Amino acid sequence: MFERKSEILASSEAPLHAAAPELRAAYATCREITSVASKTFYLASLFLNPERRRAVWAVYAVCRTADDIVDRTAPPAERLAAIDALERKLLDALSGNASEPIFLAYADAAARYDIPLDPALALLRGARMDVTVRRYATFEELCDYCYLVASTVGLLVSPILGFASPEALEYGITLGRAMQLTNILRDVGEDALMGRIYLPAEDLQRFGYPEQAIFEGVVDEPFTEMMRFQIERVRALYAQAEPGIALLAPESRYTVKLALSLYSRILRSIELNRYDVFTKRAYVPLRSKIVTALGLALTR
Length: 300
What we know:
This protein is an all-alpha fold. It has two domains: 14-115, Farnesyl Diphosphate Synthase; 133-300, Farnesyl Diphosphate Synthase (Orthogonal Bundle). The protein has 15 helices and no strands. The protein starts with a helix and ends with a helix.
């Protein structure tokens, strides 16, 4: 796949109006899932051309379905079985036997853009980890997990966005890690309610913040200092990832730049909430999203 640079950068997709009504409806389902589940991701995707944005929605819908399975209250064995079933449906769809709208759309997108299979299978391995693993000892272990559940998404959408050099994929991997770590910092309280702690044990120990305090929602000086440390580490990853935008197809750069900018602003929201990720949800208001989008447009 990675050698087909000229084909990837060319916009040779067949127009969707030539597709069957069933396929159009399938993409509409993916759009609905994306717009409801991730307003930031959806907003950024709107700046792609119609063919690319629909393909991105299809990828997101499948990834989101895996994430929703993980967050169910069902027993672990049941959730693992559901992930196995999702994997079978995905493989069946790629073989021409799609059973549900999102898989029909995904199979079409995969054929149009030569989306690789391995990152999708790796993402499902990460979903299984979410069911079976509830603690991470080191930041390195956490980064490995982030690769599985987030960097893989970058590898899936890279052929859709278009890139001029395989080097772009490494930047995409870093950006995926930064975004997932942002989610982890934002969702410390929500994850604790489900018995999960993603913050590395080595960092809890380093700052003298006991694990039990997370379940109790304690925001004290050790927690604040630890969160400051985590936020600066994630900001460094965003800075490392940003140069890779220049390696993408020109028509896709704005979308990725906007996604990076909006996601990184969640970190600022955590700071404005005085690091209270237990009773306050960090988010970027719609007005700020619009201002950011306009500002980036003016500086292009």
